[in-house]
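Weekly sync, protein design subgroup
Attendees: M.S., D.O., the rotation student, P.L. (late)

Item 1: inverse folding check
M.S. brought a backbone from last month's batch and wanted to see whether the design step gives back something sensible before we order anything. D.O. pointed out we never logged the input encoding, so this time it goes straight into the notes. Structure tokens as presented (300 positions):
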């Protein structure tokens, strides 16, 4: 880890180092939705799908009255409504709830229906257990074989009061010592980062790595350069060149372990970091997870 002293993550315990797993490294994946046509156009929504090893990102531009449904969804999923003027009425788990714009919602397994009020952007997050969605991803072919560095998904405990529609406003003031705005559920951790006011100071970057999980970085506004490099191993055929990829909005970058990475805002913007399953280190920091009382950590 190499965080600037002003970064709240500087207090995290250091990573143990890359695991000595044989075989070549997985590459980073970049999906720039503004450069491609949507995979789906129906029901008042234009939708792009991209995946990582443990997650599927479904990004949609929706019209007023658009309806998005799931039947037999195997696990809990996420609805992100970044635009203040776009709300959603969600029916799932025997209840119906209207969620205002600029908010985050967790939706129970089973059948569900989302009806949008207004025009704007939404993002839904699923695990690859949603096999129909995983198969439609633009980069599905990259994940046909398992990655030995990433263990299978293990869901976190079900809330004590069971699954239900839970929503949280994104309007959370910045607090000294807390990193971003973090929520978790049984399947995902979402960090709606503090917005970038302008270009990031190149003297205060945060190169770090993860041993055994991916990071998904969703750019909603502005542009960011993702700087990524991979450790050298004795087998030079596994080495990869450094990458410095400029990604505008909307876009998704999948950062695999154990690559060293940091992202620099090139202008004012909004990025969201996504992890599946939730991160233990962030969860162990008091006050960082804003809905920790709703979703318990695994025992031990």
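Designed sequence read out in the meeting:
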């Amino acid at each position: 880890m190499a965080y600037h002293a002003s970064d709240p993550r500087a207090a995290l315990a250091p990573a143990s180092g890359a695991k000595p797993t044989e075989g070549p490294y997985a590459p980073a994946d970049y999906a720039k939705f503004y450069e491609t046509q949507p995979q789906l156009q129906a029901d008042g929504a234009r939708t792009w799908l991209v995946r990582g090893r443990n997650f599927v990102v479904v990004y949609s531009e929706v019209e007023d009255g658009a309806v998005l449904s799931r039947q037999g969804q195997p696990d809990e999923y996420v609805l992100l409504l970044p635009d203040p003027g776009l709300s959603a009425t969600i029916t799932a788990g025997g209840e119906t709830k209207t969620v205002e714009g600029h908010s985050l919602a967790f939706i129970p397994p089973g059948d569900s229906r989302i009806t949008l009020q207004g025009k704007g952007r939404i993002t839904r997050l699923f695990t690859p257990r949603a096999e129909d969605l995983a198969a439609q991803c633009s980069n599905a072919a990259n994940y046909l074989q398992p990655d030995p560095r990433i263990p299978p998904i293990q869901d976190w405990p079900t809330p004590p009061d069971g699954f239900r529609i839970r929503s949280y406003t994104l309007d959370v003031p910045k607090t000294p010592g807390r990193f971003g705005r973090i929520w978790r559920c049984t399947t995902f951790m979402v960090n709606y980062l503090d917005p970038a006011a302008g270009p990031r100071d190149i003297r205060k970057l945060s190169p770090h790595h993860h041993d055994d999980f991916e990071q998904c970085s969703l750019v909603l506004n502005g542009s960011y350069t993702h700087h990524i490099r991979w450790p050298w191993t004795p087998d030079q055929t596994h080495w990869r060149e450094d990458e410095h990829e400029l990604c505008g909005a909307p876009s998704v970058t999948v950062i695999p372990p154990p690559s060293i990475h940091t992202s620099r805002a090139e202008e004012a913007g909004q990025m969201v970091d996504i992890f599946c399953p939730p991160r233990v280190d962030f969860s162990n920091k008091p006050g960082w997870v804003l809905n920790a009382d709703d979703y318990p950590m695994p025992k031990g």
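Discussion: The mean pLDDT is 94. Residues 25-145+155-283 form a domain with the Jelly Rolls fold (CATH 2.60.120.10).
Action: P.L. to compare against the previous round before Friday.
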